[in-house]
Structure formats: C-alpha cells, structure tokens
Amino acid sequence: MSAVLDNPPAPPVQESPGLWSLAWRRMRQDTVGMVSLVVVVFFLAMMLASYTGLIAKDWSKERGVSYANPSFLAGAENLEAKAMAAKEGASKTPPVDLSDIDPLAPRYKEWDERAAKIAVTEVKRAETLAFGGDKWGRDVLQKAIKGSEVSIFVGLASALLAVTIGTFLGAMAGYWGGKVNDFLEWFYNIFTSIPYILLILAFAAVAQASGKFGKGILPIVLILSLTGWTGIYRLIRAEYIKHCNREYVKAAQAIGATNMSRMFHHILPNVSHVALVQLSQYTVGFIKAEVILSFLGFGVPVDMVSWGTMLAEAQNELVIGKWWQLVAAGASMAVLVTAFSLFTDSLRDALDPKLK
Amino acid sequence: MTAYVIRRIWQMVPTIFGVILLIFILFNWVGGDPAQVLAGKISNPEQIANIRRQLGVDLPYWQQLLIFVKQVFTFDFGRSWSTNEEVSHILITRVGPTLTIMVPVLIIETLLAVGLAILVAYVRGTLTDRVTMIVCTVAMSISFLVYIIVFQWLFGFILGWFPVQGWSESFWKNLLTYSPLPIMLAVFVGLAPELRLYRSFILDEINQDYVRTARAKGVAERKVMLKHVLRNALIPILTNLGILLPGVFVGSFLLEVFFSIPGLGREIITAVNRSDFPVIKAVTVYLAILTMVINLAVDVTYKVVDPRVSFK
Question: Is A197 in contact with B254 (Cβ distance < 8 A)?
Fold first, then answer.
C-alpha cells in the first residue's frame, strides 16, 4: 500500500482560470480602465490618509488672511483681506482720553502694568495659500481633501448598504418565488412609483424632524441606501431566477445543502459580479447625490466639510471674484466621478464580456 | 384594449395602498410627534396637547390611517402646518411655474438628444463619435450645482443676458424673460446622459437586417435613418420618456431654489426644512399616483408606435 502512496507522480494540474482572474486579465489590457482605477485608488488613499490624520489634519485652522489668494496669484489685489485688516487696525487706535472725568483714572497705570504682563502672541496670517483661502482664511486645498473624505465615505457606505439590502431582497424574491416574490414585487412597485428625488426628500424630512436616523453622517447614508436599493434588487432577482434551476444548485440540494447555504454559499458567488458593478455605479451616483443634499442642508452637519458644503459657500464667493473654492470642490469631484464612471464601464466589460 | 386598461387600473390598487401605507409609516409613525416641532421653543405641555388634538396625532394609529386615506381620496389634506395655507391650494398654484420650466425643457432636450443621437450613431466609431462620447462622460461628472452656479454667474451677473433670478405674474414674461436661463441649464445638463442612452438605442437598431435590406433596395440614407431606424428605436426612447415624465411635475428643485421660481420643487424643499408634513405627504402620494397613470399611458402608446405590441 505504502508503495502506492510513496509514488505520487501527480499529473500537472492545469487549473482553469476563474472568473475573477480572467476578469483581471481583461482589465489589465484596458488602458482607460487601469488609468481610472489608479485615479480612484489615489482618491481612496487620500480619503484614508485624511481620515487617519496624516494629511489635512488642521483644515479648520485659520491660517491665512480672509480669501487669501492662491500662490500663483500672489500679486492680485485682495480687497476683503484689506478691509478686514483695516477693521482690525482701527480697533487698535487708542481710545478717547477720558482721564479728566473718569473717576477710575488713577488706576490706569496699574491696569497698563497688568496688561503688559499678559503675553499676547499675534498669529501672522499668510498672505497667500497654496490654492487660496476661504472667508475665514482656511486652506481651500486642505478643505477639498477633508471634503473628499466625507463625500467618498458617504458614497461608498451608502452604496454598500444599498447593494446589501438589494442583494438580500433580490435573492429572497428570486430564490423563493411565489408569495415571497409577490410581496417583494409589491414592495418594489411602491418604492419605484414614487419619483426618486421625492422619495429621498420624504425620507430626509422625516430624518430631520424626528432625529431618529442618528447623528452626523448616518442620516444621509440611511436616506440614500433605504431609497436606492430598488435597481440592484431587480437585477439580482433576475439572476437568482436564472440560477436557481441550474444543475450545480440541484447538485447542492442533492448533497443536502440547506436553502440558506444554496442561496448565499452557492448562488451568491456566481452573481456577485453583478453586485460589484452595481456597487461601483451606485457609489458614483451617491457621491453626486450627497453633494446636492449637503448643499441643500439635508446632508452632512454644518461642522463637517464636504464638497457640497464647499459649493454652497462658493456660490456667494464667485460674485466677489473668489473662484478657487468652486474650482477646488467642483474639479476634484469631477475628476473622481469621471474616473469612477470609466472604471465602472471597464469593470463591467471585464466581468461580463458577453455584454460588449 | 379597454379590458387591458381596466385590468391595469385594477392592478394599481394594491400599489396605491402600499404607497399610502409607506408614507403613513414614514410620517405618522417614524416621523413621530410633530407637535414638538410646531410648538417650537415655548413648549408648554398644555399647548402641545392642544396642537396634538388639532392635528389628530393623539388618535390611535388605525384612526389616523383612515383619516389619511380619506384625505387622499377627497383631495383635502387640510392646511399647511407652517403657513396655514390650504394644501390643495399650494399644489395647484405651484404646479404652474414648474411646468413653465419643465415642459419646454423636456421638449427641447428630447428633440436635441434624439437628433444628435441619430447623427452620432450614424458616424459611429469615428473620431466625432468618440469625442462626443468622452465629452458626454466628462460633462456628466460635473455636479449640477457647479453648472448652475457658473451659468448663473456668467450669463446673469457678468454678461447680463438674463435676469439672475425672479418670477412675475405674467406667463409670457416668465416664459420669455425668466425661464430661458434655467431651461438652457436643464437642457444642457440633461443632454449628455440622454444622448448616450439614445445613441445606444439607435445603435441596437442600426445593425439589424431590415436596415441592410432597406439599403439594398436603394432607400435613401436619410429615409433609412429617419423612417426605419428611428421608428424602431422609438420604443425604448418612449419608455425613457415615460420615466422622465413624472419628474416634469416635481420640477428641478435645484433650479427653482437658485432662480427663486415659486414651483413645486422649491415648495417641497421649504416643506422639508419646516417639517411641513401635510405638504410633503400630499405631493408624494399624488405624484406616485400620477407616475402610475403615466406608465399606463406609455404602455398604451406602444401600441400606437408599434402595431406588433399586443395587450395581454
């Protein structure tokens, strides 16, 4: 017996490449896809670095003068900063001398002495900042980085939640069919018969009035995901209907796999590429939605900075010729969204070559 | 046909009931006690009890639900909580300005998008086609907010071609003076995604056998595109219009906020800010019903466009 075991000239197994490695191979040949992937990864890294405090830690410090010029526009006139400086200068002119009539006049000297003992350090505000400053002299570049943290996180988190909800409900409806399907279809019809933007605003109204959706960025994540699961539900349901009569599922049933195991252990990996493409697409949509909701004041709280709140400030600044905040927020969002959309397209092409 | 329409309307009943239930759960149950919000800072318990009685939120939930159902079917949502204006009056007066903006937008946008899509699809694969598609992708990535802020600043403030914002009593003045800039903006922003979508619909048709047949028998190119291809691509285009149509009544709330247009969209934003539940509830329920009716109308229109469609 042992002779047999000792002698294992196993034939070289030619492992057939799986869905993911094939997709990765196709993806690598797609130049546009790879470039956009790099851009997306760069933004994600920036978000993580900002979250951990490596960069843009003191975005809220007022380091420059009001509406400080960007460094490349150092020579341009900054009327707002001058006006502010003039105001500060004016308050430093000595007050009117009242010593003749002031009964406390003899104590002036004592007060002056005491005042002199208190060390006052005057922070020198920078005339220019790398990409300009906002009204309070905060660095716009750092604000844009910090804003990306909130915007991308909200986009990713709500997309993840929406895809989870949609996948779960879609799996239920597609796998069980019958009454479960009827009920979930009814539920789906309810959500899709209300115009999407109205649905979001209705949820926002309730979130704002009741405060039951939590604090910080939790409400906006919940609003976006609870209203946005319908598209993915429909796709996953169709995939499950297709898959649940396939032979491998029947085989799983034959060896005694439970329904849950068949649904999530056997079928789910086979439809997960659909979910992944949707996740990518939803993230783009939700980043855009977050910007608009934050602008309207239904998004992130006022003490946080997101691209939406930056654009809200930029609206008034543009009229006085301070365009940099608009450009910083608008451009960083446009670059990310373009890259993410192109990446989504090539992801879909890579995962589902039939569609091409 | 009549039987089909009746059956479809019958099928709407559970969905309408579901919408009512969803809105009810959202506002009356999750939304919780509006009396706190309304009483404001001076919250005297007696006052709150009074407000609760006035609004009917002290009743058991099943009675509140019955009242809500009755409100939906009698078109009587009572009065706005913040301005005391009749909700039905709010809806009727606000829908006009919204339509003044959105109807031209939908018409211009659709004509432009379909026209350009035919052109771009016809020269598919060329540099023109590829550049157009790249421009569309980039244009779609810029936030609507940025477009509004820049356009309003450029055309309203710097160039002074249009008023920065405003609205009047006269329909023609509104349409000719105050609307062009918002309409232009909405068309500009809506064009890129529509163009991409319609181009793909037309590309699906352009490779079909019947197109080759038409060309083979010597039909002029223009006629092939406009009569054969367009007519067949019209079905997915119509479906998409059906999806867009309910939005015409909601309006672009961003445009209405920026250009101070007293439309439905701005009213909803104000209502959300003031926790004015009756207004939001009424708008949501009626627009959901309207959406269902529009979907039905679109399905019936298929028959007109495509005789092969049969009502089952």
Answer: no
Q: What is the number of other CB atoms lying within 10 angstroms of the CB of residue A76? A: 10
User: What b/e readout covers A177-186, taking b as 16+ CB neighbours within 10 angstroms?
Assistant: eeeebeebee
| Residue for token pair 């403030």 | B157
For residues B102 and B251, the answer to whether their CB atoms sit within 8 Å is: yes
Cβ atoms of A239 and A271 closer than 8 Å? yes
Contact B277 A338 (CB under 8 A): no
Distance between CA atoms of B64 and B53, rounded to whole angstroms? 12
Nearest CA in chain A to B273: A205
With a threshold of 0.90, tell me whether the complex ipTM lies above it: no
| B144–A337 C-beta distance less than 8 A | no
Q: Does domain A20-60+136-355 have CATH number 1.10.3720.10?
A: yes
Instruction: Classify A172 as helix, strand or coil.
Output: helix
Task: Kindly list the domain boundaries of chain A, sorted by start residue.
Answer: 20-60+136-355, 71-127
Q: What's the rounded mean pLDDT across residues B175-186?
A: 84
Instruction: Write the pLDDT tens digit of every residue in B34-91.
Output: 666 666 656 677 777 777 777 777 777 787 888 888 887 887 777 777 777 788 888 8
Q: Is the pLDDT of residue B122 over 90?
A: no
- Contacts B141 to A, Cβ<8 Å: 333-335, 337-338, 341
Residue B273: its chain A contacts at CB < 8 A? 208, 297
Helix, strand or coil, per DSSP, at residue A69:
strand
What are the residue ranges of helices labelled H in chain B?
2-24, 34-39, 45-55, 61-74, 87-122, 127-141, 144-151, 171-173, 180-206, 209-216, 221-223, 230-250, 253-258, 264-273, 277-305
Query: Under an 8 A CB cutoff, do A291 and B292 touch?
Result: no
How many Cβ pairs within 8 Å bridge chains A and B?
129
